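User: Just a sanity check before I run the rest of the batch. Below are the structure tokens for the first item. I only need the designed sequence back.
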């Protein structure tokens, strides 16, 4: 029952944001009483924390899959781009704003995930690309990794790229192409054009 409640909350939060959804709404969608919801989650904050943990765990798994399936560092980067786009497209932009404003504990999980796991994933990809001769050997990994994280934050920030004016796929395509061309060797450029062209056609 706990998983069922969480799955329902996930769907409602992703669609409508967090603030407008009550525990009664979740109970109604589940076809159970509000009392039953409270038997599994002490309050809405605990439910939001569980929701946030689910989001980060899901994205962690998808990024690891991209790493495993990528034949080289450039393909890994493009595959992870696709997974990130899918995640962002499934979430109402107001959700992250509400997490930051009303749920500091849950928001800290998001920021910690970005600063730790995402940053390390970027560093690992850079190191792989250098080993494979696809990224320049003289790049400063620590600096570039933080620049990439800032780049991603900006691309997904609705204040910088509002959905009414920009398509997230187009934004990420341009941002990632710019990023790759700044770090890649000639062979890396060749593969980037190939993988990005294929990615552009899929969406």
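Assistant: Here's the designed sequence for the first item:
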């Amino acid at each position: 029952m706990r998983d069922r409640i969480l799955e329902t909350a996930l769907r409602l939060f992703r669609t409508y944001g967090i603030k407008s959804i009550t525990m009664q709404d979740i109970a109604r969608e589940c076809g159970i009483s509000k009392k039953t919801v409270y038997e599994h989650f002490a309050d809405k904050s605990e439910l939001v924390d569980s929701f946030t943990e689910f989001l980060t765990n899901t994205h962690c798994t998808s990024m690891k899959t991209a790493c495993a399936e990528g034949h080289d560092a450039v393909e890994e980067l493009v595959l992870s781009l696709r997974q990130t786009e899918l995640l962002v497209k499934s979430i109402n932009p107001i959700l992250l704003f509400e997490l930051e404003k009303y749920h500091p504990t849950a928001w800290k999980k998001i920021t910690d995930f970005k600063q730790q796991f995402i940053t390390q994933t970027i560093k690992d990809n850079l190191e792989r690309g250098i080993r494979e001769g696809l990224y320049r050997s003289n790049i400063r990994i620590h600096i570039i990794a933080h620049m990439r994280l800032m780049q991603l934050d900006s691309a997904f920030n609705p204040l910088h790229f509002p959905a009414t004016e920009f398509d997230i796929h187009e934004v990420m395509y341009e941002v990632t192409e710019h990023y790759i061309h700044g770090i890649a060797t000639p062979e890396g450029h060749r593969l980037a054009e190939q993988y990005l062209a294929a990615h552009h056609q899929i969406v």
